[in-house]
Amino acid sequence: MKQEFLFRLADHAYPADELMPLTCRGRVRGLEPSRGDIDDALGKFSLTLIDTLDTLALLNKTVEFEEAVRRVVADVRLDNDIVVSVFETNIRVLGGLLGGHSMAVMLKESGRMVWYQDELLHMAKDLGLRLLPAFNTSSGLPYPRVNLRYGVRGPETRTGTETDTCTACAGTIILEFAALSRFTGDPTFEAHARRALDFLWEKRQRHSNLVGTTINIHSGEWVRRDSGVGAGIDSYYEYLMKAYILLGDDRFLQRFNTHYASIMKYISQPPLLLDVHIHKPLLPARTWMDSLLAFFPGLQVLKGDIQPAIETHEMLYQVTKKHNFLPEAFTTDFRVHWAQHPLRPEFAESTYFLYKATRDPYYLEVGRTILENLNRFARVPCGFAAMKDVRTGSHEDRMDSFFLAEMFKYLFLLFAEEEDLLFNVEDYVFTTEAHLLPLSLSTASNSQAPPLLDDSNFEWTCPNTRLLFPDPAFPRNLREPIKSAVDNSCPRPTTHRNYNSNKMSLSSSLQAVSAVAAEDGMRFMQEMMELSSQQQKEQLPPRAVQIVSHPFFGRVVLTAGPAQFGMDLSKSSSGVRGFVTVAEPYKGCSELSNGEIVAGRIALLQRGQCMFAEKARHIQKAGAIGGIVIDDNEGSSSDTAPLFQMAGDGRNTDDVTLPLLFLFHKEGNILLEALKENREVEVLLSDKARDRGERLSKTVLKHFELLHF
């Protein structure tokens, strides 16, 4: 196979932590606008490269894997003065180093990489030692963040003041820390991870045997008492089961079985999984589900409880087919609650495990749907972009490291034949980040002898699925009513807040004594007009600006705000397609001087100086077929700001018949840069992105290069 992965990584992102696939550059923390807690995963340690090491080995790209290991060893520093998430750094970086080490040892034993002398393991231990200060609490639960150079104590750390952490954050440590202890012979790491798990177990609600979502790391009091299997708790349950599989300690299985019985009693309402209150488990805590719970059917397969796994997975698949991807959250009637989708792998993970358990070819069709949707809706020229809104198909300039670390592995394994695999994956356990840890670690040194096991709760652990389902039609019969239930639901009309900026008093615009004050006053009047209009009109959903010309071919979709006047794109089956031209004057507040060029095209305008309807009238008079207003507030982005909706000017706007859309500054710059680099840029204005027209072939292996940087 071609060795393209590292070359593309170097071209676009290396040594940055992540790729920004729309702007084709690396994301470096501190150089890009903060995204809040999301950025805590970034530590200036080439995150995506480390997170993807064992993916390269799994796909039998041994030359690229070896070169990637050399780069990590030579270039990555772990002593950066930066505050990172303990949870994310553990599962992505420590897990990535340990998975890479496992693969390097396996290759060395087969006669390759003979130069390797445990360099990745040494780095893993260095990182583990840098994470240990976070566990210096009276409870043993770790602080949620740690400074890689200074720890958690002292002003130079810029952390250590937090009091709360999520259950998954504290309970998803044991696999990586235990593996590190057993690889190195140092029991310290495993001991700290066990102590954290023991504390969480002791703090479970004794009546319901459920845990809350957020806990105080000092007192052990539950801060958020809602309980589910999705965000905030998910991998805690996963790691109890997998700790038993990896380490052979029966205590973990006992705890998992106890929790699982309560999950199935209170949270599971097949095919739904609904959060409840830990003290009143019969009382629902919310009426929507988040996409992270999509891992749970896969965990149920490991448990051996196949029937509810099939039912919940089918519900998730039908939601996926309705929206192309799983929304970050959706309601019990399968409508969008949060519209984002950051290319999460959990649904693909469960699809793989269900196929392994049942060998039902139906799950190959599910996998094919996932692949086709990725290629049709998420693929952009420099990688794969997260979905800003599954309803419109618009993108975020984001490709998290877990896309290559997890999504790739599970889709590849779903379709791979035995001869495609370099080693037997049954000899490994997957961490929550899909890193590969060898089961042989269960026989490594462990000073704690497990107690004798009470096996009274083993009834549903690892049954023979052929005996469970002797009738091949049985899984299909489980799926059909769920398919019908989702098909009969309909999307929810969405509501959005409006974007506000530069608030001034109305009198300041009336008494403006300078051009700047007048501009601010006009902006305030515009926002007051929008607010008044929004109180009278129903909020409109977002629109899409899709770049369809070469070299984009529809792969870049920008989230656009609608106008409350002009052409309603939701009533157009084809949208409005045309080449873009910058209006002169750019503000579009007077008759255009380049009207002959704008005629028959989509005009680009800058926000400011006059009302939106006035801009629309000027470009319409010049013969434009549409308009795009670009925000003049530098740094504004649909990633961080609510949807902006353009109102009229208080007068009748029935004379405006063309479509007018609004782009924030960041998205507008993507369009302007495309215009600089290409002589002609053609876009489609529509209510949602149209089919990109490309499909992946039946196997991931043949098209691995498509997903590279």
Strand order of the largest sheet: 22-21-27-23-24-25-26
Average pLDDT reading: 87
* Overall shape: globular
Structural class: alpha+beta
Biggest sheet details: 7 strands, mixed
Strand content: 5-15%
What integer value in Å does the Rg equal? 27 Å
Helix content: 25-40%
Q: How many strands in all?
A: 27
Task: Determine the N-to-C terminus distance.
Answer: 16 Å
Number of helices: 23
Low-confidence stretches: 1-7, 449-453, 455-467, 490-513, 527-537, 693-709
GO biological process, one term: response to unfolded protein
Pfam family, one: Glyco_hydro_47
Enzyme class: hydrolase
Family: Belongs to the glycosyl hydrolase 47 family.
Mind sketching the topology for me?
Layout: H1 5-12, E1 18-20, E2 25-27, H2 47-51, H3 53-58, H4 62-75, E3 83-85, H5 86-109, H6 119-131, E4 145-147, E5 164-166, H7 167-171, H8 174-184, H9 188-202, E6 214-216, E7 222-224, E8 226-227, H10 234-247, H11 250-267, E9 268-269, E10 272-273, E11 276-277, E12 288-290, H12 296-303, H13 306-323, E13 329-331, E14 336-338, H14 346-358, H15 362-378, E15 379-380, E16 383-384, E17 387-389, E18 394-395, H16 401-415, E19 428-430, E20 436-438, H17 465-468, H18 474-487, H19 506-510, H20 515-536, E21 543-547, E22 556-560, E23 576-582, H21 595-598, E24 602-606, H22 612-621, E25 626-630, E26 660-663, H23 665-677, E27 682-686
Parallel strand pairs: 23-24, 24-25, 25-26
Antiparallel strand pairs: 1-2, 3-4, 5-6, 6-7, 8-11, 9-10, 12-13, 13-14, 15-16, 17-18, 19-20, 21-22, 21-27, 23-27
